[in-house]
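Appendix B: complex inputs.
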Amino acid sequence: MKIGLFDLAEYVKIAGAFHGEETPELVIGGFMVETALAHLPEGGTYDVLCETTAGIPDAVQLLTPCTLGNGRLKIVDLGRCAVTVFEPHRGMGIRVYLNTEKLTAWPEIHTWYFDRGKGWEQGKKQLFAAIEAAAVSIFGVHPVRVKEDPAAKRFRGNIAVCPSCREGYPVADGPLCLACQGYSPYGE
Amino acid sequence: MKIGLFDLAEYVKIAGAFHGEETPELVIGGFMVETALAHLPEGGTYDVLCETTAGIPDAVQLLTPCTLGNGRLKIVDLGRCAVTVFEPHRGMGIRVYLNTEKLTAWPEIHTWYFDRGKGWEQGKKQLFAAIEAAAVSIFGVHPVRVKEDPAAKRFRGNIAVCPSCREGYPVADGPLCLACQGYSPYGE
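Resulting structure:
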């Protein structure tokens, strides 16, 4: 099976280099993206929604034009192992998720998934072999409509200089920048 | 000036391919990462915090081992043009930000930044030349301590099957998965 333009082994290597480690999530995420795209008209313009921050977003960023920094990869962190590829105007898309009922046939994957990777480094070879063999058979696929995200649609408009920190910030955030309103991530 | 292992032109091409477009934020983000790293001991292990989602996270993901999917790139979306590279245990790091007072010397950058890119496509060549010439001279640099993020530290523990949707979800999220608790991003 091809993942994007790559053979699976090639993909795992490239994705592992980007992600810092070759992980099961990268492989599953790659298969998920492929599955969703196979259910959508070729040549369309699609955005992606990930329901987890773990691993899968890196697969999406490598295999699609959707990245964190260009705003086309959306994260709604429900902690579910699922990816939706959708048409951004009407929100219609295909959701691919890990079908937990199908995992009973794959003890390595079952243990890795439900025990949050306990001991997976020891059985890494077997686990990857199982994921590769299971491929898309452990997924569910269904059409969805992504609701509009009011936060994402908020146009923050022009930039002004914050009178407190003197840095630029989106005018729409108020008379001070969010950091000076108390949301600074920095401490003493 | 080198950006990571790349010459600037090479970097812009690679970053543009990943991001989908060669944008000013990618160049500024690249310079910012370089600046922060130059102020930190070589060979350290660092995480990154971005204060914006626009463009700069993609520069970080290409130039550092910190990605969205491996959890080492944190976003605190204050809409400020700033990057902090920090040591993850104690949070000590270097913050690099766009110093708006220094932009008066660079009218192309000033207009692009404060008018949120109005007409930048027309003056793209001049704008990129200005950014390249200004390089790190338009930044401020200061040491910071990143406060602990309670959300990021939350260990979601093992996975259970949600009794409503039958998908796997982090047990720590409650008796149902967050989607079935009402946080689903999907509609009719």
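The first strand of chain B starts at residue 2 and ends at 3.
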